[in-house]
Amino acid sequence: MELLRLWQNIHQEASDLASAVEQLPDECECGDANSHLGGKCPCCRGHMMGGNPDDGQNCLSIISSLQADLTVLGQDLSIAGPALGAAALETQQVELRRGLFLAVGDLEAILEAFRRVTESVVGFRQECTILRMRTVKRRCVEFRAHCDRVNAELLNQRLRAG
Ligand SMILES: [Zn+2]
Ligand SMILES: [Zn+2]
User: Fold this and answer.
1) How many A from CA of 77 to the centre of ligand 1?
2) What is the pTM of this model?
3) What is the 3-class SS of the chain, one letter each residue?
């Protein structure tokens, strides 16, 4: 897949994930963390905005799509900049499409933000507490913010290019 298309997928998925997680109640009394993340446990019924919870997006399936897309992106990064120090990564760029570039450091930051999302999900699955669920929500919002910022940079480049 073309890198720009891949990026657009990731940006969309980051946005879908943050809004899907946002709709879930903080508290899951039944303790079935996986169903809760899918919006399908008894605690979710009646909380979900906009009708049938079955229509809602399953956070876990969005996370696994993101995992797959980011793995491909990460592979492209390692081709672009193998064995480079952090300082070199800051200035190195990957071409997504003719004339559209991303700093490798930005992409690394996105991978790191996603790692924090998955880490928070593991924590929620273990403990299923309100605190853990709020951490998941916060990390998803942070991840989306990283993706939004990078996407805005790409749009700017496109405008400058005419
Ligand atoms: Zn529950
Ligand atoms: Zn639930």
Assistant:
1) 39
2) 0.87
3) CCHHHHHHHHHHHHHHHHHHHHHCCCCCCCCCHHHHHCCCCCCCCCCCCCCCHHHCCCHHHHHHHHHHHHHHHHHHHHHHCCCCCHHHHHHCEEEEECCEEEEHHHHHHHHHHHHHHHHHHHHHHHHCCHHHHHHHHHHHHHHHHHHHHHHHHHHHHHHHHC
